[in-house]
Specification:
The chain is of the alpha+beta class. It has twelve helices and 13 strands. α1 crosses α3, α5 crosses α6 and α9 crosses α11.
């Protein structure tokens, strides 16, 4: 059994953080390819720095009935269409700064065709089902700490930055610029959050705050009301420590202040350190890549287990071998709950998703849709499913079936 009384911390970063800018661009590329071809293969890495955007990676797209040459041309046409989409994504984040401007930044694209040796192991044939795009382990997690069934430290960290981003985009807080980080420390008693120990927010800003010279106190007065609004009443106390822009001014930020790369915020993207992580990033990868799709599947299954009341916490691990469809292992940890034998779930849960093969996961969660740019900031989990199919892995439609198992 784990400890029941402890202090724990998670961090988040905003959509304007350099690594998140890179993630957003890479997932914009994924969406562009899947919109053109739902079976497209994409592995896109993005680098952003002072007024420069660089794309690299492997892609493949096509249309039924086309020759190889025609599909090669089809792929090139999609690549050629990316630049305005990428610039629009940067504009939407809010970057029109001297050091990083959505319209003026230099753009370079080095996307090229997918390796034939990878394709031969992954693609379905008449003799075998589509295999996993790589070997690896993936984890999913859920807990009862918040309505979203997410770790509270991470959910509140996300919510602070999302609230500030909404204020920035709406014009309510024009002093704010896109780059920001947050961190929340909670004290737990009997496994439940009872007090906010510390709140850290570092937020990029304009030279003046509401027409006044920047001071840390003015920044605190700007940030605190928005941050306070995301916590349940009573969780923030007089003892809560606030650290707002603790280094002082934060005018130079975003890719001009620090280079951004795709896939460097995998703990922010998942469970804030409350769960193991298999090591694979999500952004820039189409859903045939099990790093992404199987992690979504594990979250979906773990969330349904907790939503069904079978455990207060659930961790699921799955593993694959490249080119092989069936998982090489499936593990369930209920963290001491005795409502059901985990071994029973280890048998039943994969069956609920067609054996958790890459194709079965994509079909069950309807992942072959352009739904990925919206995942690039504020977490891939703990979000609300939308009408276009985004965040479908957050549904709890297996609850009744799981309750019947108990």
């Amino acid at each position: 059994m784990g400890r029941s009384n402890y202090v724990f911390t998670s961090e988040s970063v905003s959509e304007g953080h350099p690594d998140k800018v890179a993630d957003r661009i890479s997932d914009t590329v994924v969406d562009a390819f899947i919109e053109a071809d739902p079976e497209a293969r994409v592995a896109c890495e993005t680098l952003v720095t002072t007024n420069r955007i660089v794309l690299a990676g492997e892609v493949r797209a096509g249309r039924a009935g086309n020759s190889k040459a025609e599909n090669k041309g089809f792929t090139k046409d999609i690549i050629a269409s990316l630049q305005p989409k990428v610039r629009a994504a940067v504009k939407d984040i809010g970057y029109a700064q001297k050091g990083f401007h959505w319209e003026k930044a230099r753009y370079a694209c080095f996307l090229h065709g997918q390796s034939a040796h990878i394709a031969q192991g992954v693609d379905a044939t008449a003799k075998k089902e589509e295999g996993a795009g790589d070997q690896g382990i993936m984890f999913g997690y859920a807990c009862s700490e918040t309505p979203e069934l997410m770790p509270a430290t991470l959910q509140y960290s996300h919510n602070i930055l999302k609230r500030l981003a909404d204020a920035r985009h709406s014009g309510e807080r024009p002093e704010l610029e896109p780059d920001a980080k947050s961190q929340v420390t909670l004290r737990y008693e009997n496994g439940k959050p009872v007090e906010v120990v510390a709140i850290v927010v570092s937020h990029q800003h304009k030279k003046k705050l509401n027409g006044n010279t920047y001071t840390t106190k003015r920044m605190e007065d700007l940030i605190k009301p928005h941050a306070m609004s995301v916590f349940p009443e009573g969780l923030v106390t007089k003892k809560t420590k606030w650290l707002i822009n603790p280094t002082g001014k934060f005018e130079i930020g975003g890719p001009d202040g620090d280079t951004g790369l795709t896939g460097r915020k995998i703990i922010v993207d998942t469970y804030g350190g409350a769960s193991p992580h298999g090591g694979g990033a999500f952004s820039g990868k189409d859903p045939t890549k099990v790093d992404r799709s199987a992690a979504y599947a594990c979250r979906y299954l773990a969330k349904n287990v907790v939503a069904a009341g079978l455990a207060q916490r659930c961790t699921i691990q799955i593993s694959y071998a490249i080119g092989v469809a069936a998982p090489t292992s499936f593990y369930v940890d209920l963290h001491g709950a005795d409502t059901i034998d985990p071994a029973k779930l280890e048998k039943a849960l994969p069956e609920m998703m067609g054996g958790c093969t890459p194709r079965a996961i994509r079909t069950h969660l309807k992942l072959n849709r352009p739904i990925y740019a919206r995942t690039a900031a504020y977490g891939h989990f703990g979000r609300t499913p939308d009408n276009e199919g985004g965040f479908g892995w957050e549904r709890t439609d297996l609850v009744d079936a799981l309750r019947r198992l108990a």
